[in-house]
Amino acid sequence: xxxxPTSERTHRPVMISEAAHKHHEELFPNHKSTLKVTDPELIExxxxxxxxxxxxxxxxxxxxxxxxxLASIIGSHAVSEFKIMVAAAxxxxxxxxxxxxxxxxxxxxxGMARAFDFVHATNDVLAAREIQLPLESQxxxxxxxxxxxxxxxxxxxFGTMIDEMYERSPKDQLHIQRFLSANCFGDYYTRTGLDxxxxxxxxxxxxxxxxxxxxxxxxxxxxxxxxxNGRDMLLDVITQLLPWVGYPRTLNALSCLNEVAPEVITx
Length: 267
Hints:
This protein has 14 helices and no strands. It has helices at about 20-25, 35-40, 40-55, 60-75, 80-90, 95-110, 110-130, 145-160, 160-170, 175-190, 195-210, 215-225, 230-245, 245-260. It is about 70% helix and about 0% strand. By secondary structure, it is mainly alpha-helical. The N and C termini lie far apart (about 70 Å). The model has no long low-confidence stretch (mean pLDDT about 95). The radius of gyration is 21 Å and the shape is globular.
């Protein structure tokens, strides 16, 4: 009832581990969390999990971890969180060009309708840091060379599978195969700013976050293995994305990994 006395709310102090605090400060120096005030129990659980417990299972450096988390956030279509993490990524050495390349790399996988808001969000963060746009061009192709150069990169990642895809494709769908070579790979994978190993990890991170694309996840896990990203690294990536994409997508990714690259048990 309106006239009844309100019970006094009591909360114990938020207990953030020393490791979690250290890793959080690395990304967000001197950050004053509003959620730590309004939702202290959630922040305690999440920070201790994401910035301590999960990190204890990683050999990835802070910069590459930030790159892959950014990629997964695009796949999750979480624009507000992306803006926060772009600033954090810049704090740990991810360059503006690398941020833009993560974003451009996402376009053929999430589509421009989803990427559009992230382009503007990125530009807002960069403008706030007085970084002049547009950034230096990273393109290495033109309309005449994009198909051949894209096909070369595509085969470097997937090998003879690409020839088989062209051979198996119905004639009325061959244009899609050519789009993959010229657009997905020719327009994006051939760009400088990020190397092929990182681009494949970015693509995988986006796909894991999207969900429902297990066939593509398995394909790009094979691509990652082909360019030198081994099972241990892929498991590390999946583990680090868990706090950001949740358990269902993580477990689906683990199932794909175990099918593509089963654990080798040595006596």
